[in-house]
Amino acid sequence: MIKNYIIDTNVMIHDPHFIYNFSDNNIIIPLLCIEELDSLKRREGIVGFHARNVAKELNRVMAMGDISKGITLPNGGTIRVELDQMHTEVLPNGVDFNKNDSKIIAVALNLRNQNKTIPTILITKDLYMTIKARSVGLKVEDYKSDKIETDKVYKGYIEVTLSSDEINKIYNGGLDIESIEENLYPNEFLHIKSLDKEGHEVIAKFDGGKIVPLKYAQDTAWGLKPINREQKMAFELLMDPKVHFVSITGGAGSGKTILSTATALQNVIETNQYRKIIFVRPVIAAGNDIGYLPGNERDKLKPWMGSFYDAIENLSDIKHTKKGQENEKPQFTVEDFIEQFRQQGVIETKTFTYMRGRTFSNSLIIVDEAQEMTPHLAKLMLTRAGQNSKFVLIGDPSDNQIDNHYIDAKSNGLVYTIEKMKPFDITGHVTLNRVERSPLAKIAEREM
C-alpha cells in the first residue's frame, strides 16, 4: 500500500541520499525543512557538509520535473516539496505554534486529514518531536534504512572449545573450518579453550581458508606490546599489511588509540610500509565549529587531537623505558616530535572537511571518534582510499559517547561500516572489552 512519508530535516542531514530508500511511496518535504537546510549549509563539520549534499541531490531530482507538483522517481515513488498545509489550527492548545517542529507536525496532520485513505507517517530522528507528534495522534517512525541492531553487532571473535589434537593442527598447517560449528568471517578470531587440557587457551584467526595461529603475537610496535586477549587480536589486524581496513571499538582506556598509534608509527617510521600517517577526527558542528578558532588548519585542530598527542607521549615514555632510561626524560616534546615529522610529510592531522576531493595512497589513516560519523560520511571517508592505503576506524558507539544529534548507537557510521565490511578478506574488526588505564577508570567505565 502506498504511504505518504513526511521527512524531517534531521533525516536529510543524517542521510543525504534518503530519497532512494522509500521504495514506491510518496516522499513529502515541508518547505520549512528546506529553509532549515539553507540555514545549516554554512556550518563547518558534518552537519554543513551534509546540508550541502542534500541540496545537490534535490537539484539532480529537480532536473526531472517540478518538485512543487511532484516528481516520479526511478523506483516508482514520488517526491515533492509541500508549500502549504502549515495551518497550526489543527494542533491542540499548549503547543508552541512558533516552533518549527510544531509547524512540521501541522503539515503532517493536515495532509493526513486531507486524505485518510493513504497512511501518513512522519519520519524523524528527533525524540522530542516523536513524543509531540504521537501525542497528537500522528504515526511516527525513525529512519531505519541504515540502523544496526546493537545486540547483533559483530565483535570480531568467538569463544570455542577444541581438543588438544585440533589445537595442535592450528600450529601445523592450520585447522579446517569444518571443525567449528559457527560461521566465521575472514579475519575473525577464536579464543580457544582445550577440552582435555585444563587451563590451556590459545588465540587463533580464520584466514578465509583455515584457522591459523597469530603472526605477530611476539612482536612489539614502537615499544608497545598488547597486554590482553582482545588487544592481541587488534594488534594482529593493525600489523597485517594484507588487511586494508580495521575497526576497533571499546570504552575509554581500552587501548584502541594507543594501539592504533603505536602500530602506525611502527609501520610508517620504522618499516616504511606506508609513506605517511593521517590522523582524522570528525568535528561535530553542534558547538564545536573550528572556523572561529585562530590559526591555520593545524592550529584549529590541536584541541581535537589530544588523544593522539597523549598516545604519542605515552609511547615515547614506554620506548624510553624499554631502553633502560627510566630516569631520563625524552629529549623532545610531543609537539616537537609531531612537528618534525609533519615537516617531512610523514604525519598529517585532518578533519573530513579538509579531506574532500583527495585520494590517499601509501597512507595509514586513523579516524578517531568514528562513532560521530553518519553512514554517508563513513562511505565518503573510505572511498578516499588509494593504492597501498589502510584505514583504521576507532571509537565507542555507545549512546552516551555520541555528540552528533543526528545519529545514535544503532545508526552511526562506525557500527554501519563494521557490519558492511565484515564479509571481506581485506577487513577486520575487534571489540575491546577491558579497561587498562587504572582501577578508577575501570570503575567509572563500568558503573557510570
Features:
448 residues, alpha/beta, Rossmann fold, 6-stranded mixed β-sheet, 6-stranded parallel β-sheet, 14 helices, 18% strand, ATP binding, PhoH-like ATPase
Task: Describe what you observe in this structure.
The chain is of the alpha/beta class. The chain is built from 14 helices and 17 strands. The chain has helices spanning about 10-15, 30-40, 45-60, 100-115, 125-135, 165-170, 230-240, 255-270, 295-300, 305-320, 335-345, 375-380, 415-420, 440-445, and strands spanning about 5, 25-30, 70, 80, 120-125, 140, 155-160, 175, 190-195, 200-205, 210-215, 245-250, 275-280, 345-350, 365, 390-395, 425-430. Helix 7 (about 230-240) packs parallel to helix 8 (about 255-270) and helix 12 (about 375-380) crosses helix 13 (about 415-420). The two termini are about 45 Å apart.
